[in-house]
Design goal:
Distance between the termini: 25 Å
Number of helices: 15
Order of helices and strands: HHHHHHHHHHHHHHH
Helix content: over 70%
Number of strands: 0
Shape: globular
Largest sheet: none
Structural class: mainly alpha
Length: 394
Amino acid sequence: MPFAVYVLGLAVFAQGTSEFMLSGLLTGIAADLHVSLSAAGLLTSAFAVGMVVGAPLTALAGRTWPRRRALLFFLGVFVAVHVAGALTGSYGVLLATRVAGALANAGFWAVALVTAVDLAGPRRRARATAVVVGGVTVACVVGVPAGAVLGELWGWRAAFWAVALVSLPAALALLRAVPGGRPGDVPLQSARTELRALARPRLLLTLLVMALVQGATFCTFSYLEPLVTRVTGVGAGWVPVVLALFGAGSFAGVTLAGRLADTHPRAVVGLGMAALTAGWAALALTAAHPVAALALVLLQGALAFGTGTALITRVLQQAPDAPTLAGSFATAAFNVGAATGPWLGGLTLGTSLGFRAPVWVSALLMVLALAAAALLARAPATVRVHALPGVDET
């Protein structure tokens, strides 16, 4: 695998840490800026909305740029807004930096995905995607807990400074490792042509499946803490262990999917989705049993991110003539799920199911994802992909 692909993963690690680290910093931010905890929580929502809206917009704005220039620009903006966020004493400015950071993150993701796939070559597309997505899983395992520790020791601003500092080596490495031109396997199309390519039924259904899978994932992930402390019955000291288990499983799933999805894409997606559906139902039923619950948290992390990686690869395969915009729509679908899943789970917390309710919502979302996948299997193919072994149509 080219070194530049790992550099992209490092940059995504820094950005993924920023996206999720606020969960451990909200109390400090609220106290320091004299706002309510719910207002501080809007900083997380603002980032998710910025990712969803920003992915296609930034991809359209930078689609004609050389990839190295685009990556460095988006990463430079990302660093700058974190410096501004670390220095500001205004909640409004901090909120604006979160939106701007999300826009830059979305643009970087869109370019990074197509660049990694192009550099790796047609036979290692899934592995390259796995390296980039793996940056997010490492952020969940290492970056987010580290940000919480920094916030506890030196305040929330220290976490923002750390994200900016970690991004700088990635920027220097990108400058040296990433070629300056555009991806070489696809000629530049007009924006209208790329948008028309994204209207294919199979691609839209794949994006829907992806959003549903991620919605199921983040629906339960967002409420793991109350689930394991109030239903499973483990102490609060176990929460970091549970989160680390989920993150470790995610990293293992991404790594394994990257090795299998290039040659067995349909099997990875199909079996992964079926196992996820059964796994969320099993977790809801066995959440009161610590050993079963902890084992399922690890397994579901692996299945969720492994299946998600394979779906991102499928999106890029199904739009070979619109690679940058396809990557941006994959990013948007991921974040639609990340924003919608927790919201749906929160609506059910007051029901008789209690803290098991979000897990049942995850299972239901996976049932819907399987139904969408069934429609996808019947949708007519419009584009043939010859470069990938084991994939004859999209």
